[in-house]
Design goal:
Chain lengths: 123, 123
């Protein structure tokens, strides 16, 4: 089994960096089976998910990761990654967020996001 | 496929109610494959997980659920549940928390927790 902790950390760094520099490039991380829940809205498949990301209105976004926890899931090769952090959009004050990813492997061994849920911790 | 949203909601209500009234009863929700990450500490199997719950020092605990998101996972019958809420221990001020569960089905069709990660949102 691959070292799931290393995969988890690399994924987190890649994902949030790409989100900051070029959200459209995240296409490669999703498939038509992928699911996104974003602040209670639900999206399925690469196209819906990337459209949602592109529709977010901010010009600048940066994520600061505070914690990340990684576990192997019950899907062979699957990895669950749980992230807490701070999100800064444009000139707004930073907001706390939490996000979970369930990565799965393609037949060729690369990883894609099967499930992800994002929530701001406002309430 | 079972209605994963109903299963998710029922699970959340059951889990946090049992946590409040009798944490030892949660034994039924775990197996020897279960994994818990709790504030960065990692536990595996029913015994380690329940011991951790029992070692928590508070007399009273109550959870107020603010959001819950549910998705089917890639494991047949599997469900991912993502919860944000407020946790109150004894007479302390409420604290925000986030928790994810990956439920799987046993051969007999009941659900158990394969993965769970718990974090207070302090940082």
């Amino acid at each position: 089994m691959a070292d799931f902790n290393s995969v988890g950390l690399q994924f987190v760094q890649y994902y949030y960096n790409q989100f900051q520099v070029n959200r459209a490039e995240l296409t490669n991380l999703f498939t038509d089976q992928s699911m996104l829940s974003f602040e209670g809205e639900h999206f399925r498949g690469t196209q819906q998910i990337i459209q949602k990301f592109q529709s977010l209105g901010m010009q600048k976004i940066s994520h600061q990761i505070v914690t990340h926890d990684v576990q192997p899931s019950s899907t062979p090769g699957g990895i669950i990654i749980f992230v807490t952090g701070l999100l800064k959009m444009d000139e707004d004050a930073p907001m706390k967020f939490t996000q979970v990813f369930h990565l799965n492997q393609t037949p060729s061994g690369s990883y894609y996001v099967h499930n992800t849920v994002f929530r701001l911790n406002l309430g």
